[in-house]
Amino acid sequence: RFENVSMAPPDPILGVSEAFKADTDATKLNLGVGAYRTEDLQPYVLKVVNKAEQLMLERGENKEYLPIEGLAAFNKATAELLLGADNPVIKNGQIATVQGLSGTGSLRLGAAFIARYFPGVKVLISSPTWGNHKNILSDVGVPWSEYRYFDPQTVGLDFKGMIEDIKGAPNGSVILLHGCAHNPTGIDPTPEQWEAIADELEEKGHMPFFDVAYQGFASGSLDDDASSVRKFASRGFEMFVAQSYSKNLGLYAERIGAINVILPTADLAARVKSQLKRLARPMYSNPPVHGARIVANVVGDSVLFDEWRAEMQMMAGRIKGVRQKLYEALLSKDKSGKDWSFILKQIGMFSFTGLTKSQSDNMTDKWHVYMTKDGRISLAGLNLAKCDYLADAIIDSYYN
Ligand code: PMP
């Protein structure tokens, strides 16, 4: 019966961690998965998360089922964090928010909604993008294609190509956009470019689907990092927005996030929300409560909220520090005159090094540096002490 089942390939991102674990070399470095590490390269639980959990224990909160749409206090907090509490979209009830299983599960709910209500509509994703976008869309049977995003020549945004491909898509397509800190490139459009992208979407009747997995991690400011989404919302787009608290609150394993749909009326928002619940019920019935309570407690308490912001800035600051140090190490070690400044221009957790697959293999096989084969390194897994070593590995891999 199971004879025809073949071995699935390892996941291109999570498989890197498995390979890292199996390596016994002391110099090994895991720059694969985007998870924050301390300067000692240890996982980090935010202090503010511990405080919120303490509060939960003191209150003796129970483990009853949540409603299908999740914890009401979380859904309110997450929509307000995204758009700002005084946003007219929130005041007018024009948003359907359903708690999801982190960013992935929230994207999946949005994709399932598209499959059911907009059959045949194509989703355009950036080339490159986070690998799971393709899996999510393919698994719900939504057709997708790519728009140009990364220009290897400039190691920057291929803005012209992006606009051309958005123009070329069938009217009424869905355009998947990274709200901030694009994964894997670390390259975001400028505010002017966002405006032009919005113009083009409007012109073509396309719908934006924002993936917001790094709010607060790009600039250190929750508001600044949501400015792309808020711009589109203020222009009156109907749109999807998936959120994740894996990175900005370090709640990777709690699987806490949300899918939001912004609509022209409160009545439509209520109907869309009812259908999102209908999609969620047979998939997982209702979401987990622990992470939702943490987020609601942190956002709902002004002291904890301020502490969260400070810790997020600390994390974002540490990553900026290693980014700078890595750049300086490359500059001083590489005598070829190559311009490495793209490393400083990229933002968020990642650097897209431009290393090819075989060069990335050299990084791992010779230098024990674990990274994805698209040339992406997670700076969140790097510390100051290892920057020189990493620069040696990169230069060796580039030129040999
Ligand atoms: N979208 C992007 C662009 C991401 O980088 C990630 C995390 N790597 C996610 C979504 C979702 O992650 P999670 O399911 O852990 O929230």
From TrEMBL:
Keywords: Aminotransferase, Pyridoxal phosphate, Transferase. The keyword Transferase applies. GO terms for molecular function: L-aspartate:2-oxoglutarate aminotransferase activity; pyridoxal phosphate binding. GO terms for biological process: amino acid metabolic process. It is an enzyme of class 2 (transferase). Its EC number is 2.6.1.1. CDD domains: AAT_like. Transmembrane segments: none annotated. It catalyses: L-aspartate + 2-oxoglutarate = oxaloacetate + L-glutamate. Residues 27-394 form the Aminotransferase class I/classII large domain. Signal peptide: none annotated. The keyword Transferase applies. InterPro entries: Aminotransferase_I/II_large, Asp_trans, NHTrfase_class1_PyrdxlP-BS, PyrdxlP-dep_Trfase, PyrdxlP-dep_Trfase_major, PyrdxlP-dep_Trfase_small. Its cofactor is pyridoxal 5'-phosphate. Homodimer. NCBIfam families: PRK09257.1. In eukaryotes there are cytoplasmic, mitochondrial and chloroplastic isozymes. Belongs to the class-I pyridoxal-phosphate-dependent aminotransferase family. This is Aspartate aminotransferase.
